[in-house]
Design goal:
alpha+beta, three-stranded antiparallel β-sheet, 9 helices, 8 strands, 15% strand, transmembrane, membrane, transmembrane helix
């Protein structure tokens, strides 16, 4: 009875008392001894890091200074002109310009001498009652490109497409089977060849490209990105001057060359313009001496 009485008289226990241990673990998960040891090591490590960083600071500053000096030296070395190579390049460019000037002067001299020869030849034939022979020689010289000519015809300008433009038509180069590697929108030597063929097909009697008269020995070819006519480099726009009958313009538009040129304009954005001219003057061609052909007896 006494035991039952004691249990009955004992005060009730707090339900939250059993949660005190869990609450303590949540508030202080680390054992006090471990916490003291961690605090001691943290204090010792901080002092050593401060000491080591104090020793490393001068070394770090010295390394940064050396790296900055090396970088400045490299940049200055890159900016210094390569004197020897620049002198060689300037000398080569000067020689090229000089040779080009000499060639141009010689060409003008040859043209002038040929004109004098033609004049003297006509006078000599006229004195010997050879007027018909002189007219025949002039006609042959005009057709072969050996003499300058003038007359009515057409002027065609062909230029590269503006930078960044592109056409939306078909590819005329692939249709023609051209093997040109020219970039899209850039006039190629094969393009000028087809255009010139269209002019001849339309009835042209004399043609010049940028002042270079075309003959049976003329060649239109590429050297890198440059186009050569009579072995002379040309710069765009390429102006094709052709002397021929009044129907030349219409005939060229309907020719294969004219259709091809229209395809270049719509397919690649190449700029073209064609106009008539009643007073064209084409220079004589500088023709190499014949090596195999001889006058018939």
């Amino acid at each position: 009875m006494s035991g039952a009485t004691d249990r009955a008289q004992a005060p009730p226990r707090d339900p939250a008392a059993s949660m005190s241990l869990i609450t303590e673990l949540m508030k202080n998960p680390l054992d006090p001894a471990y916490r003291q040891e961690a605090d001691r090591r943290a204090a010792a490590g901080g002092s050593r890091e401060a000491a080591s960083s104090g020793h490393r600071s001068p070394i770090l500053i010295a390394v940064v200074i050396l790296l900055g000096f090396a970088l400045a030296t490299a940049v200055s070395a890159l900016r210094v002109p390569r004197t020897h190579q620049d002198r060689q390049r300037a000398s080569l460019i000067s020689r090229i310009h000089q040779e080009q000037g000499d060639i141009a002067a010689s060409s003008r001299q040859i043209t002038g001498l040929r004109g004098e020869i033609s004049t003297l030849q006509n006078k000599a034939l006229a004195r010997n009652n050879g007027a018909s022979t002189a007219a025949q020689l002039n006609a042959l010289g005009a057709s072969t490109g050996l003499v300058a000519v003038h007359g009515s015809g057409v002027v065609l300008s062909v230029d590269n497409a503006p930078s960044g433009s592109a056409g939306a038509g078909v590819d005329p180069r692939h249709q023609q089977g051209s093997d040109t590697t020219s970039a899209e929108g850039q006039v190629a030597s094969a393009d000028l060849q087809l255009v010139v063929d269209g002019m001849w097909q339309g009835g042209a009697e004399a043609i010049a490209i940028n002042g270079q008269r075309l003959t049976a020995q003329s060649a239109i070819r590429s050297a890198g990105e440059a186009i050569l006519v009579n072995f002379q480099p040309l710069q765009p726009p390429y102006v094709v001057s052709a002397i021929g009958p009044p129907s030349l313009r219409t005939a060229f538009d309907d020719s294969e060359g004219g259709v091809y040129l229209h395809g270049l304009a719509t397919g690649y954005g190449i700029r073209t313009s064609l106009r008539s001219d009643s007073s064209l003057k084409l220079p004589a061609a500088v023709v190499a001496d014949l090596r195999y052909a001889k006058a018939a007896q």
